Amino acid sequence: MAPTRRLNADEIVQRKQKEVLEKDDTEKQLEKILFGDQASFFDSLNTIADAGDRALTRQESFQDGGDSNAEDDDMQDVADEDLFFLDAGTTDLPDDVMEDLREEQTDQDEEKHARKILWHDSDDERITVSLASNSRLRKLRDTEDDDIVSGLEYIRRLRRQYERLHPTPDWVKYARKKRKHTHEGHESDTDSDVSLDGSPTTSVKPLAELLRSTASFTTQDSKSTSSSGPLRALRLRPEVIDIQRLKDIASSGPASIDTLEFHPLHPLLMTAGPSSTINIYHVSPSSQTPNPLMTSLHIKGTPITTATFALSTNPTPDHTHKHHQKDPPHPPTETKIYLSARRRYFHTWSLTTGTLTKISQPLYQSRSAAANTSLTKSKKNLEIPTTERLILSPDSSYLAIIANTGSSGGVVHLLSATTHQPIAQVRVESLNSIADVAFYRDNSGFVAVGKNGEVSEYNIRERRVTGRWVDEGAVGTTTLALGGEIKDVKSVTRMMEMGNDRYIALGSTSGIVNIYDRREIMGHFAGALSASEEHVYRPKPLRTFDHLTTPISHLNFSGDVAGQLLVMASRWKKNALRLVHLPSCTVYRNWPTDKTPLGRISSVAISPDGGYLAVGNEAGKVRLWQIRD
Questions:
Q1: Is residue 42 very low, low, confident or very high in pLDDT (cuts 50, 70, 90)?
Q2: Residues 249, 255: contact at Cβ < 8 Å?
Q3: Does this UniProt record's set of keywords contain Nucleus (predicted)?
Q4: By CB count within 10 A, which of 105, 257, 300, 351 is most buried?
């Protein structure tokens, strides 16, 4: 047998090509059916992509339904008819529901335009969600026919449902509204030193209407009198007082309440302190909202030490002529508040116009004015280092500012409350500086007491000291107060030079309070040749109170003519407060009790008619009591 020849690679390829037959039409058609052509291949790719989108949609819908479990927990207490629609035919929604939906849509549109989207997901526009296929999502429908919604609409409805379950807090609405008003009014108070609260509860309009009222501050409407007439005073009995606690003015605060004062004519109470904020409340304990906040003012970086009301009238006070007591009183045309701190300036805040004025002019007296007052002529000594201790006269005509000069005493700077210009200066020769100053009831002068207990009586008309005397047993005098009125003071010319206040109370660091009848003091100086006689006058106190053991920080008389009530308190011990009845000079034994929530007292105020007692403490709370006869 002849050997077989092995074929090379090229010969093998040629032989295979000869063996492959050409495809006929039947074979080509069958191959197209089984495998498809190029056009069918691309159509299949598009079909697969659409199937993937549908799968993604179903997956998103399932996930969104699963995430709503927390919402379903919140909806357990809601009736089913409020969650789902009954498939009982197509009916129109009630008008009130459609109105609510339109309002919500309007609010959402406004919010959509107001807020700028920081991040955008393109998938939100591409996907669709079926609300009817998932029972957990049916509560998101607006009508029964709602089913397929876009991703963006689905997000919006989820947000709407969340806001229904968790409404926006009131403080957020207030902040947004306040920011909106500030933006519309082009007011940018970020860097301002003064901010005025403009919330609806602190509207200036009701405060202005209240200031225009002619009704006096009385605890009972049936006992109201005109603002120009005398207030109806309570008739208190000794030893036992009828007092009832009312709703607190302020339950808490950022700092202590160091200044507390009632308005002379209207039911307003002002509070201030180291927080640099002045609040004015409407005293109405029986109203639906007891003692609402009327308005407030914040002066940045100015811890308030003095805040006092001032009633201004059109006639300018005449400081050169004598004040005529028989002249008819002028109705007040403006209510101001004097605000001072440990600064070389002070502020005036007009409640009538809302204007805040900073008095920063040089507060010193000229050399010629100093010569007229027979005081030192050194301009350096005439300057006022701080307005921390500022006292306003009862008729809002004079300002007294205490400027201590060290252990040698101090100077009382007397200024005009209208022009803020110096009128006179009184040097009080006292060890350890001046303790306190108080104006006479008739505005004819003032009393200044040093920390060593030496009392100086100064007459503004005569520009001279009319009497000096020493408090009995004084050990570090801290404060003083004047109260009551002398009826027969006009019969003695000498007495007219020392005011018409009947009582004077002096407190000391030992907790002792001495109360004097000023008629005896006036009688002594009426027969004296000079107030600077060698013999030092030491009057006997009408009564000495030793019920408190810590330094006396507050002494307040009631504003009635008789001066029936004296409040004495100390901030250095908790609940250290006592009430004294005059003229019996007896301490009330039934109040306060061990359970009376006074705290560490930082301020005390009595209403002009004596019907309310307000007490502020270092915790920022302001308690209110009503006194009855």
A1: low
A2: no
A3: yes
A4: 257
Q: Is 148 helix (H, G, I), strand (E, B) or coil?
A: strand
Query: Is position 577 within any domain?
Result: no
Report residue 487: phi and psi, to 5°: -80, -40
| Residue 77 DSSP one-character state | T
**Residue 592: strand, helix, or coil:** coil
What is the pTM (predicted TM-score) of this model?
Answer: 0.64
264 C-beta neighbours (distance < 10 Å), count: 20
CA 285 distance to own-chain centroid: 18
Query: Is the pLDDT assigned to residue 97 strictly greater than 60?
Result: no
The first and second tokens of residue 553, run together, are: 């920080």
Q: Are 382 and 365 in contact (CB under 8 A)?
A: yes
Residue 142: alpha-carbon gap to chain centroid? 45
Look at residue 112 and tell me if it is in a domain.
yes
Mean pLDDT of the chain: 77
Cα distances (Å, whole numbers) of residue 150 to 122, 155, 321, 423, 527: 12, 9, 86, 80, 101
Residue 335 CA: distances (Å) to CA of 224, 265, 352, 567: 21, 10, 6, 27
d(CA 440, CA 483): 9
Q: Is 57 inside a domain boundary?
A: yes
Given a cut of 50, whether residue 169 has pLDDT beyond it is yes
From the number of C-beta atoms within 10 Å of its C-beta (0-12, 13-18, 19+), residue 110 rates as: exposed
DSSP string, 14-66: HHHHHHSPPP-HHHHHHHHHHH--HHHHHHHHHHHHHHHHHHHHHHHHHHHHH
Decide the pairing of beta strands 577-581 and 454-459.
Answer: unpaired
**Residues 342-387 pLDDT 10s:** 998 999 999 888 889 998 865 554 444 443 443 333 444 456 788 9
Q: Which pairing describes strands 128-130 and 148-150: parallel, antiparallel, or unpaired?
A: antiparallel
| Per-residue pLDDT reduced to its tens digit, 116-163 | 666 777 777 788 889 888 888 888 888 888 889 888 888 889 988 888
Structural domain harbouring 133: 45-71+100-165
Contact residues for 282 (Cβ-Cβ < 8 A; gap 6+): 206, 210, 267, 268, 291, 292, 294
Distance CA 588, CA 526 (A): 35
Contact 601, 622 (CB under 8 A): no
**Total domains, the chain:** 1
Closest alpha carbon to 473 in 440, 499, 503, 511: 511
For residue 391, list its beta bridge partners: 400
Tokens 């969104």 found at: 64
| Contacts by 398-403, CB closer than 8 A, 24 or more apart | 398/423, 398/439, 398/443, 398/460, 399/338, 400/437, 400/439, 400/446, 401/363, 402/434, 402/437
Residues contacting 383, CB < 8 A, separation 6+ = 362, 363, 364
Beta-bridge mates of residue 398: 416
Phi/psi for 226 (5° steps) reads: -70, 160
> Which amino acid, 520?
E
Question: Per the domain annotation, does 52 fall within a domain?
Answer: yes
